Amino acid sequence: MKDTPAWLLAFGLLFSGVLAGCEHAASSTGEEQQAINSGSLPRSNASAASTSPRPRAVIEEAVYQFGSMGLGEERTHVFQIRNVGDAPLRIGEISTTCRCTVGQLRQNEIPPGGTADIELKWKAEYASESFRQEAEIQTNDPAHLALVVAVEGVVSPPLVLRPAKVWRVPELNDATPSEFTGTIHTNFADRFEILSMQGSSPSITARATPLTAEQLKELGAKAGYAVHVSVAPGAPVGEFQETLSIVTDLAEEPEISVAIAGTRPGPLAFHGARWNSVGNYLHLGTFARGDGRKETVSLVLRGGPEDPRIEVVEVDPPQAKVTVKRDRSFAGSDGGTRFLITVEFPANIPPMSRQLNDLGRVRLRTNHPELPEIQFGLRFQAI
Q: Is there a cis peptide before residue 317, judged by omega within 30 degrees of 0?
């Protein structure tokens, strides 16, 4: 037999190695598949992760509306967790982010297709326009390691006033009573009665009439009254504020109070778009000194002589020209007299500025016995 060439021997050895490698790979693949089927491979293995069972937590209604609750009322809601996965769902720690309590689970593991109930209880201990109370549930669901359930609603006091804190009557005067109507209602009791109403001043009187079915529906109330408040004429000049106390037969809140407020204007009142009633000044703004600026404010004078008069006494700065003209076309409901006061800065005045800490000043003299002199400020900047 002839000797085999060296190149042929080398090729045979290489081919045998390739076959051996293929057999080893096939053997390894078979062993790996067997391990996957037996579940002995770790979950981090990509092939195993795609086929291994896992839990899946579902809560159909994660937020529940308690609606309107009464002060001191306690309510409970049960949330249901379903396991729609194909491995047991384990429930871990349950924590709350509120002053509420969570009932204990009967089981800490939910089988595939099973359910578990979680009870959340909350007591409304303080009035609030809105509330949200939550509980967080730890699970072994890779997609939902923490589930959050919540209850929401509003806590209303036993009695509700509308407006809530202050009932402001129209402008007070010397001739007729000033009237205002507010409401008092409850969202919980089917009925209640007002036993008495008492004002902190004899000038305040009140009467109550039951709300109609339509008014109750609009307020979302079960029972209530319209309260008609009357303030007698003759209140002192300036801000007026008293209190009305309402006594009821509602055990949860037998008495409630509301502020009755208003304003009694004095002998005079300024009106105008640029008039600042808080600071008692006319705001002429910023203007180019080459253009000048002119503004008019009205002054209504009440009471006094039949022929009231106003004259200018002093103006600071002197560059401002002030004129007063009686508006004889004005017919006030209370017999007041209106004067038009015009403040004008002519064109080409020197640059100047008067601001809050250094207002300009206009001083007027009247023949009104209660108001012999009137002063007001000027705020401006001429650039």
A: yes
